[in-house]
Amino acid sequence: MNHQVKPPEDNLTELMAFVLLGFADMPHLRWFLFGLFLIIYIIILMSNGTVFLITKMDPALQSPMYFFLANFSFLEICYVSTTLPRMLMNLGTQRRRISLVACATQMCFVLMFGGLECLLLAVMAYDRYVAICNPLRYPLVLNHRVCIQLVTGSWTIGIPVMIGQTYQVFSLPFCGSNQINHFFCDIPPILKLACGDTFVNELLVYSVSVLFVMVPFLLILGSYSKIISIILKLPSATSRAKAFSTCSSHLMVVMLFFGSGIITYLRPNTRHSEGTDKVLSLFYTILTPMFNPMIYSLRNKDVIMALRKLLSK
After folding, report:
1. What's the pTM?
2. Euclidean distance between CA atoms 212 and 152, whole angstroms
3. Could you please report the per-residue DSSP string of 228-291?
4. Helices 237-266 & 199-209 angle (0-180, nearest 10)
5. pLDDT tens digits, residue range 172-181?
């Protein structure tokens, strides 16, 4: 953790806006990056929107697994829409200035949707655990009321915590440079601009990261350890392959999302970590939402059939 010494009061300046540097160090790639991220954004909106639509419309996709998948797809659209439109505007207009209020709002929504994704991925792992380890009780344990309660509970837990986390960060005084070496208002680069001792704030960041990243990740690992032990006990290779195929897509998404998130928020700070932070952030804020619908669609026969029916209409 970094410990910053508070400068004299006359050196403090009240910042009313920040500058998101983004990819300002690569001006020759400006329009290439604009086109690339615009295409990615369109793909994310269309693919996640399609998954959400077919899971709501197709009668064959009304199980708890697809209910959670629909919510996850909707959440991905919300999550990526907090960062990509601003990034595209900054690349297109070169106006990188963002007000203090807008920066705090963006951070709050990024944290809220990101934390909710972690919780929802844990809920989806529990769904696979019940489906494989207790298949006869699956409709009873995960009925529609319980599914709604699990999703609602995830929102209820995440919103107040992330609002409090954002308030803690922006209650700090800021001085000196107002340039954020990132493409969105994330906690680590914002804390680097704060005056005074940020030890308590960094401790809170680690605490919230453990609560919303490590705890769901450990619950997912626990669920899959039980799932794998049950699958290995199945009598035939065909039944083992079928059982594993129902959870392999979710497992791939978990590794991609949690891997980049854990490295970003729980690794020690280093002097040369800003470029790495931006690359890792691209994984969990942009690339994962783009790959998720492809992973679930290409490895799920029910989704492919529902998509074919939708396209044939």
Report:
1. 0.86
2. 16
3. HHHHHTSSSHHHHHHHHHHHHHHHHHHHHHHHHHHHHHHSPP-TT-HHHHHHHHHIIIIIHHHH
4. 170
5. 888 778 899 8
